[in-house]
Amino acid sequence: MKKSLLFLIVLFSVMITNAQSYMGYIPDNYAGIQGVLFNPASIVDSRFKTDINLFSTSSSLNNDFYGLSLFDLSKSSYDANEDGKRTPSQNNGAISYSDVMGPSFMFNIAPKHSIAIFTRARAVVNATDVNGLLYDQLKDGLDDASDFNINVGSPNMVGHTWGEIGASYAAVLLQNKQHFLKGGLTAKYLVGGVNSYAKGDNVTSAFNQTNDPLTSTLTTTGTLTIGSSQDFITGDEDVKFDANSTGFGADFGLIYEWRPDYASYDLNNAKPVDNNFKDLNKYKLRFGLSITDLGSIKYNNSKIDTYNINGVVSQQDIDDIDELGDFLEDQYGTPTTVYKTVKANLPTVLHLDADWNMYKKFYLNLNGNLSLVDKSALGKTSSANTWILTPRYETRWFTFSLPINYMEYSGMQVGTGLRFGPMFVGSSSLITNWISKESKAADVYFGFKIPVYQKKFKDTDEDGIFDKEDACPTVAGPVENKGCPWPDTDGDTVVDKDDKCPSVAGPVENGGCPWGDADKDTVLDNVDACPTVAGVVENKGCPWPDTDGDSVLDKDDKCPNEKGLVANAGCPELDADKDGVTDKDDACPTVPGPVSNKGCPEVTKEVLKELKVQARSVFFVTGKAVLQTADKGQTDGRLDAIKEILKNYPNAKFSIEGHTDSVGNDKANQKLSEARAKVVMDALVAKGVNPDNLTYKGFGESKPVASNKTDNGRAANRRTEVIHVGTIYEGKL
What we know:
The chain is mainly beta and 733 residues long. 12% of the residues lie in helices and 36% in strands. It folds into two domains: 6-453, Porin; 605-727, CATH 3.30.1330.60.
């Protein structure tokens, strides 16, 4: 069957193209210049220094009427017409959308400002409220059609092609701790191509089959309006672009990012090598809102024909159609024609985007695209409402995505996408087409670009100097020495530039020089408490002091604050007993005595007399050398009295002498006198008298003091005497 009225009924109802380009690729943080097509704000604070698109395109086929197995189409055994599955309804819809992006680029003009320039050619065709039941009747032509009577309704179809040049600007609007907001605006200059449309109004169609093309008839009612900026439907003109048909469009968008780890990206703490963290995706959640394709193209002298299609047409007339315009005029009469300026709208869309950085390089994106155009209006192009859930794995050079999308026409589809640096390719329906035997969609996108990524600069030795500028890239060093460590010739940890003695090792505290010994006392100046005066090691390099100036150093001076004699360990001469004789000359330093007696007390006559009295009162048992015990208290008292006298003369030497009367044998008397003298001496020693100060001696009857002829005389001769025999000086008597 040639060109026929069926074109008006089934136009675009078989295959349609998805109205959203690059599905599954756009959420990628490395979508670059393609991202500006859906939200102009995406280009600022991006992961690119610049992104240059060489060529990219996105196109697809889908419908809500006819499903088939795309992967079986190449098989000779597969008959798409017979094996496909149809789903006719009274309001089947369709949309066709193609997008070709030419040379385009984006780049950052400042840390918070970016621009983009792009070129683009687009085509969109909409078909709504098409009665699929009628198409189902006519799919095999009128020869095989049976009688039908169908209320076609008001089918509406529109097609529009145009080119555009866009300029985008985006900026960071807010950066406050974890809150980050950016916005963008795109202005587009539009050049029209073809704008055509056809809309029926209350159309009915009834067919009466007689098996004879001359008598088989199609009866129709209603009106049909056909409009076009170029007369290629009803005339002989070829499709061409019209440089006189121009217009303007605009996109704008906002993107908010929640950055809970904002402190990790504080620019105040950034090093040059960090490149201000431009290479990192910093958000945990990202939300986008944009409206695209605001505007229209003005077509001058656009022709609009309105046909009254009430009438009956034979099958033969339909089979003989050569030109559709001629057929319509021949069968339904001259249309009502007007020429006027038509403003063809762009398919305005509201885009919603939410992106979650689930874990490291794994993301989950939800994207919604809602048409803002009345799809039933005459000549209005529109977009399909779409929701897309896209999990993805994303790195700088590679992305794998798995878009799961739902469209109002074709239902649920699952696809996949890949990005390998400068190339990207994908399909939002690939997986569905692979496994489904009645797929209603097929799409593909691909592109080639030159991406120049933001990145952390290489600093192998982490000294804050980029490797390309580091003279020693593998060894850390300061900027002042071109990234090389300062040398340390003497190995003392003080680098040569700070070392006052670079060839001789020395401590840091002394500027790299060894410590000196200014006073030559062998104590180094750093530990010498008196670095300019020679001293001794034991006193931290200081000389020992002599506080009292007696030439005896304080460390040896027992009297450091009182001038004394060297011989006296620095102390002055002492006179402990205050007798005027210094202790060193005092034979009795603890007992006062006259100088004439070398400081010892003199044993006076009175003392000797008292000793005599006391000694003569010490009695013995008759004929024995045993102290009388009959009157022991008196004997002890006499001995104590003698002891008290003797202790006052510690340096005096005394002799205890024993005497007897003449009665008896001389030899026995001698022995008895000696024994009795010793007993007295021992008794005094026992009471504490220094034994070195005592001697004893017996004289027997040889020294009588009275006549032995009388009793009184003999009694006087039996006696004990304490005799002072001299003074001990320096161990000598």
